[in-house]
């Protein structure tokens, strides 16, 4: 158990609670009391009101100190200007934990942020842990206790899904949705403004909680990225799934936007890359947040292998196949032995394939469903299975036939060697009747419909692959120490030289300081050449006429050199020009873009995409946090919409993906070695022609200190 887990245990498992500011005239007081009664709270409750009196038949103490008994957690329902006195009262009473309902703090502008800073400082000086302010509280469904100032709906069976949300109202809606669909919760915590306890600390606590099998997180922002990442690492280490719905996207910084990478990435995509690195399952809706987290809690990690999908409808099987392709799920071809076993049980018109249609014959002979599943789930290439079957939730569909089919599904999956889950045909409510049938049959059932089930399956498959890489110590790059040069790289020539030193294949390039010198260099290269202006003040050379292509012969090189020198000096008279670079002209092949950027929250990241003009036109890039391994780079290449171009297009040779991956990983390491003052390192283009991979142009962008 971590220090966070130990610190929060008493807070979130209160056996004695104080309501400070309790009054029957307050909607918050009444809602908090109603929540405890709905849960069947068996602990002590102490109302506190400075005027005394009673609260729903309970005598109110005039202060927390006057309670005179040990209290684990207090709910503060007092105005913001009375909080200082209330905190001092808690300290005198020996109460170390408080939920702050009050608003008007950081969410209310700079004045509110200053009030929150003062509140936090005072609470810490008094040794108090704070949940909030602007917070609805928490619910402990397992131990039937809560400090929750909103409504709860009955029945509330405990389950294994934990909810952490910065929005209390949304947390309440998530709990309602879970209840409607038969998904039991373990804990629900609203963190509000997070003056003290934040989502990262609650996640860390839930990682250790034996009653929580999966964690659903709603976040508007991540205030402590380092602690958040550490909690995610711990969850990954114990294979506890975390599903995240995070709002907000923006460009990374104005400074990073000086280079292409900043405008192509944005901090929201860097958050995506962090989720991918740490195995967090990111979703885009509250439905997928709840359903994916519940799905993952039932299945756990998928085994290595493909997915099997089973239904009694050919149309449903078609939907399965299409959604599987959208989610990148492999519907495994069945082994010959599996096909043979299925032919023994299917009707003559049935086809042993994946997805498997057991046909309408199962309506006449439910045993057919069970027999087919028994044969299917033993296929050696399977990693998981999804079966479509509804659980009756009302008298109208609670027929003997539906019960018989459900019993056969349960029998067929009972000895499954891989995770197997049953989903409804469409999103359905789960009634008490449904819960009884699920418990009776022992099936893992989620009433989310095929669409959400396949979304969840795709997320769990990706999480499972991350787990296998981590557990096998494969595909995780080692940290690269910073070993920056004596002076920041200021020019293309210096940047290319640095990349070459760090193992990146680079086009040969020489700096000429006269037209004659350029002609001599060109002659030594014995072929057409490129001229490019060399100036640390000119990042985008084409905008000032600083690039000349496909020059052949000494006279052409001299003339182009002189014209470029004059043109650029006229366009940028203030720029310090070092000379003009001479490099061999490369033609043909495919151009890639490789760029790194430093996110203020999550650190350095690397983007790969089609290069040249296409990087801006198509914005087709894949992103990872640094460092990356060549294996990760190959995954990035496969994610590009233009990935097929790498495999040869209209007669072009197929690109050597291994060679590309080695070069891109080396570029990432070269960027890391330059240290934290580097804003962005870009190679555009990285030319690929069959087995030849070569950086043709490079740019380093530095922060103010660089």
Automatic annotation (TrEMBL):
Entries under Pfam families matching the protein: ATP-grasp_5, CoA_binding_2, Succ_CoA_lig
SMART domains: CoA_binding
Residue ranges annotated for the ATP-grasp domain, each copy included: 496-532
Record GO terms (molecular function): ATP binding; ligase activity; metal ion binding
Keyword terms of this UniProt record: ATP-binding, Ligase, Nucleotide-binding
Origin: domain of life: Bacteria
PROSITE patterns: ATP_GRASP (PS50975)
Protein family per UniProt: In the N-terminal section; belongs to the acetate CoA ligase alpha subunit family.
Protein name per the record: Acyl-CoA synthetase (NDP forming)
């Amino acid at each position: 158990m971590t220090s966070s887990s130990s610190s929060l245990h008493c807070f979130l498992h209160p056996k004695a609670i104080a309501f400070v500011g309790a009054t029957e005239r307050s909607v918050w007081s009444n809602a908090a009391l109603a929540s405890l009664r709905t849960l069947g709270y068996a602990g002590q409750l102490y109302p506190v009101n400075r005027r005394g009196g009673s609260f729903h038949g309970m005598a109110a103490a005039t202060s927390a100190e006057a309670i005179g008994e040990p209290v684990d957690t207090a709910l503060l329902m007092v105005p913001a200007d009375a909080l200082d006195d209330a905190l001092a009262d808690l300290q005198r009473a020996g109460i170390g934990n408080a939920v702050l309902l009050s608003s008007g703090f950081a969410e209310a502008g700079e004045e509110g942020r200053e009030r929150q800073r003062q509140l936090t400082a005072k609470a810490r000086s008094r040794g108090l842990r704070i949940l909030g302010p602007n917070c609805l509280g928490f619910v402990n469904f397992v131990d039937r206790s809560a400090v929750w100032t909103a409504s709860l709906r009955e029945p509330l069976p405990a389950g294994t899904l934990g909810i952490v949300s910065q929005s209390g109202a949304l947390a309440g809606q998530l709990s309602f949705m879970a209840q409607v669909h038969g998904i039991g919760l373990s804990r629900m915590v609203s963190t509000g403004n997070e003056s003290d306890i934040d989502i990262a600390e609650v996640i860390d606590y839930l990682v250790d909680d034996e009653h929580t099998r999966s964690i659903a997180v709603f976040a508007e922002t991540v205030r402590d990225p380092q602690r958040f990442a550490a909690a995610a690492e711990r969850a990954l280490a114990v294979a506890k799934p975390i599903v995240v719905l995070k709002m907000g996207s923006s460009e990374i910084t104005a400074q990073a936007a000086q280079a292409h990478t900043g405008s192509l990435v944005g901090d929201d995509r860097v958050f995506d890359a962090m989720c991918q690195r740490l195995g967090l399952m990111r979703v885009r809706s509250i439905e997928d947040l709840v359903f994916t987290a519940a799905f993952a809690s039932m299945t756990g990690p998928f085994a290595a292998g493909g997915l099997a999908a089973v239904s009694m409808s050919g149309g449903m099987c078609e939907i399965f196949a299409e959604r599987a392709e959208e989610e990148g799920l492999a519907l495994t071809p069945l082994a010959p032995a599996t096909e043979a076993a299925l032919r023994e049980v299917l009707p003559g018109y049935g086809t042993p394939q994946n997805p498997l249609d057991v046909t309408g014959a199962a309506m006449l002979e439910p045993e057919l469903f069970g027999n087919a599943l028994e044969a299917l789930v033993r296929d050696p290439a399977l990693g998981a299975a999804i079966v479509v079957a509804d659980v009756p939730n009302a008298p109208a569909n609670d027929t003997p036939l539906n019960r018989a089919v459900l019993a056969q599904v349960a029998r067929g999956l009972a000895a499954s060697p891989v995770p197997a889950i049953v989903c409804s045909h469409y999103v359905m409510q789960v009634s008490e009747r449904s819960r009884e049938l699920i418990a009776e049959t022992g099936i893992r059932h989620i009433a989310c419909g095929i669409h959400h089930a396949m979304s969840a399956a795709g997320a769990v498959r990706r999480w499972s692959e991350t787990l296998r890489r981590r557990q096998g110590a494969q595909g995780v790059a080692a940290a690269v120490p910073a070993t920056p040069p004596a002076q920041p790289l200021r020019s293309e020539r210096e940047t290319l030289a640095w990349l070459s030193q760090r193992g990146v294949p680079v086009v040969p390039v020489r700096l000429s300081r006269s037209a004659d010198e350029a002609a001599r260099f060109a002659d030594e290269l014995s072929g057409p050449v490129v001229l490019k202006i060399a100036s640390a003040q000119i990042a985008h050379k084409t905008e000032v006429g600083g690039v000349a292509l496909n020059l052949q012969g000494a006279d052409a090189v001299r003339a182009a050199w002189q014209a470029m020198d004059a043109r650029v000096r006229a366009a940028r008279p203030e720029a310090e020009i070092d000379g003009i670079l001479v490099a061999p002209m490369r033609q043909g092949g495919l151009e890639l873009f490789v760029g790194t950027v430093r996110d203020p929250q999550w650190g350095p990241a690397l983007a790969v995409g089609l290069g040249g003009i296409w990087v801006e036109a198509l914005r087709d890039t894949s992103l990872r946090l640094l460092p990356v391994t060549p294996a990760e780079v190959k995954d990035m290449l496969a994610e590009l919409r233009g990935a097929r171009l790498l495999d040869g297009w209209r007669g072009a040779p197929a690109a050597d993906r291994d060679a590309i991956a080695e070069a891109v990983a080396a570029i990432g390491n070269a960027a890391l070695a330059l240290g934290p003052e580097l804003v962005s390192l870009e190679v555009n283009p990285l030319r690929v022609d069959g087995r030849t991979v070569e950086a043709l142009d490079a740019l380093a962008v530095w922060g103010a200190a660089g």
